[in-house]
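Run log, item B.
One chain of 494 residues. Sequence copied directly from the ordering sheet:
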Amino acid sequence: MYTDATSEEINEAMKEAWDAFHQYRKMPLTRRAKFMYAIGEELKNNEGELVQSAMKETNLPEARLKGELARTIFQLNQYGEAAESGEWLEARIDTAIADKKPPKQDIRKMLIPLGPVVVFGASNFPFAYSTAGGDTACAFAAGCPVIVKAHPAHAQTSEKVAAAILKAVNKQKMPKGIFSHIHGAGIEVGKALVMHEYTKAVGFTGSLAGGKQLFDWGNQRKVPIPVFSEMGSINPVFLLPEKLKKSSEEIATTYAGSITQGVGQFCTNPGLIIGIEGDDLQKFIKTVGKQIEKVAPAKMLHPGIAKAFDEKKDKALQQKNVTTVSVSEIPKKENEGTPTIATATGGDFLSNPVLHQEVFGPYSLVIRCKDMSEMIKVAKNLEGQLTATMMATERDILSNDELVEAVKNICGRLILNGVPTGVEVCLSMQHGGPFPATTDSRFTSVGADGIKRFARPIAFQNWENKLLPAELKNENPLKIWRTVNNLLTKEIIH
């Protein structure tokens, strides 16, 4: 339906974004916020059309999409408020001390925008992680223009969201080029966008292969740029002995729901569950298996994802000493994902890299460790993850410090007695983790701290007050929080 952008179209979009950057970066924080609020209003005004379009393209149900669109609007509003409050700027002021030997200089530091940001949307979230999603909202909040490459799995929906953004651009009298929307099903368009001289950062949500390729391109440039890619994660769940003994069946029921929620098409789906061999773990396996049998297969986002799920699931199940515990009793139809639970020993997991790979869909592998020592070894041999979960009592935690520390080392979010599915949009959220979960574990893609991905620090030394940016002036005209001589304050500097 949509043709790939030509090199001329890409050059034009990037040139316009670069020109827009020099205007937008100077706009007051309040104008950035109003622009983002306006985008949210346009999305709300077009809710019916947007949801219907996404339903046709993704097979996602209406209720899920309405909720996701509401989340998208919430993100725009929350990050707009964060932009206006200015806390993300990390304003730091150390005033001069003339009689110090040698004299202490006046130094003031803050974050400033990087420049045009290219955003690659996710296939599984047509709103919240796509055209007007978190990456776009963070970039706008930081003061950066955005160029979105539409995901081909929901290209029409992306086009409609882009139209809503452009309405807000016009209504708020934003500079031409502050937002562009480009189509491209092949790698050529993506590569051209990442390698373009005016691109200053990239945001991506998707597969390990795709995210790593973008990261490599970003680092192969004459001038390397930051590429924040959110990629694969199997989100391990550790079942500790005392908790498992007390609540094995309850935990099993909870996790059967988490594994199959949304046909398992979440980046935080619990794809690996680790326990210690024994009656309690066997009871858990039996219960979760019975629950899975009752869950009907459901349509996945598109045929490509359904095909990949079947191929990766079958590959995992064909590995030596991997046993299928349970599959849905209900026959599947075309493009549907069949809920499946399998199991293997800790030793087999440690010796077989295939079992470490993400199977994107309603699938989970239960690892049976012979003892706590092997569970710790499994934890230490896991790759970086978005989340890790510990189902544990207080005594389990306090008596297994080595395991807890090992798990901390591999994840961005550590959950106690819950499920990883569901990502709260709030300032304290960390949605990012060590590689290969993301390309930079220091940042989050969810929550207002995500704005910092698209900004860099600059220090002003010995500048006259009247020449400083408003954020750093003595009188604090923006009334933002600043750290002045090591004290967090909104007070005027006298």
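Observations after the first pass:
- The radius of gyration is 24 Å.
- The chain has two domains: 7-231+441-456, 237-416.
Flagged for discussion on Thursday.
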